[in-house]
Design a protein that fits this description.
Blueprint lengths: L8 H20 L2 H23 L2 E10 L2 E3 L3 E12 L6 E5 L5 E2 L3 E4 L5 H4 L2 E11 L3 E5 L2 E6 L6 E6 L3 E6 L18 H6 L11 E3 L11 H7 L3 E3 L8 E6 L18 H19 L3 E5 L15 H10 L13 H5 L5 E8 L4 H7 L6 E8 L4 H9 L3 E4 L6 H9 L1 H9 L1
Parallel strand pairs: 2-11, 14-15, 14-16, 16-17, 17-18
Antiparallel strand pairs: 1-3, 3-7, 4-6, 4-9, 5-7, 8-11, 9-10, 12-13
Length: 417
Amino acid sequence: MRRAWPLTARGTGAGVLAIACFIAAAQLGAIQLLAFGVFLTALVIVSLIALHITRRDVELTRSSSPPAVPVGDDVRVTVHVSVRTALPTTPGTWEDRVPEGLEGRTDGRFPALGSGLRGGDRAVDLVYDLHATRRGVHWLGPLDLTVRDPFGIARRVAEVGDTTRLIVTPQCIELPPLTAFAGATGGMLQATTTRLGQGSDNLIARPYQPGDSMRRIHWRATAHRDMLMVREEEQESTPEATVVLDRAKARWGADAADRPGADPAFEAAVDACVSAVNALVRDGYAVQVIDVDGTPLSEVVPGGEQSAVAVLVARFATVTAQGSAHLATLGHLWSGATTGPLVVITGALTADDVDALAPVPAHSVHPVLLTTDGASDAIERAAATGWYAASIAPGTSLREAWLRVAHADVVAAEAAS
């Protein structure tokens, strides 16, 4: 029960008028004013008693569609309120509490409900729309339900139901393939295109050995050689890509570590991270998402598993800036090794940061550097060391930035020719 003045404007006026009648009756000796004051006082008291002695059992369930909503999208919330009461209820008002980060009108008129003696509970669905403006986990409720007595003299405000969780996820923007040619950097598309035109005649067959599966028998080669032949196992490798989200506090605003959605630059980085993962997974890469120091931020997302991308996007609803890892740490992760596409997403860059990242491009088939720092000198300096670099500062288009880093090699080749 939330504390509130128990009388409506009408009830407050009746109480004030009753006091005035008592004072005037004492001064003027008018018995009629005294009687009228007693009547008004009795009316207010009876209204209060009638409102509070009536038993109302209220049950509430709240659902949202969709259950998780990206930043910038709308969600519809349905509140199912069931009221069990022996007496009919009068109209009232309702208001559902909504935290910062969600916008919309969440109040309205609560309808009158009939007696529950004959038909059991009386229920009503309250529906409203919200616009998600901040990433994170938000809690809706409780519902404030205001009821009045039949005369409109007294009112009662009650908190109904528990809170309900609503997840606001980063924006996952559809991005084009990382290169202009499908599979050029080793994804599953490459495995598909390189096998075009290869039929069963081109497969390598070898003599059968004990333990070989019968499903691998090459019947045409068996008939030709007059001995059991099996298909040679192909050496398969899972193409891998890595997305690095730099969470070091020093390269983000002070609010980035406090709560999700507080720093626009960090939000742009998180959006870019999940969007890059989605694009790489769609192209067939198994993607690992890590911090600058190599700490995994999620499980490896298998190539082509869009459902796993949805799980990652939901997990990134609560990620914040933390730690103090230096960008130089990134160079040690692939020391002496070569990885597939590498996407590094970071914040403000200094000249020392760019120099620390200089050895990394040599270890990736397609090194991409996305920074929320709009300074062109830092981007040009990074490009000179081998990065495909672009700015994703708040207010810029992530898709356009991705197009620049994805097709930079093709543009450069066309310019050279």
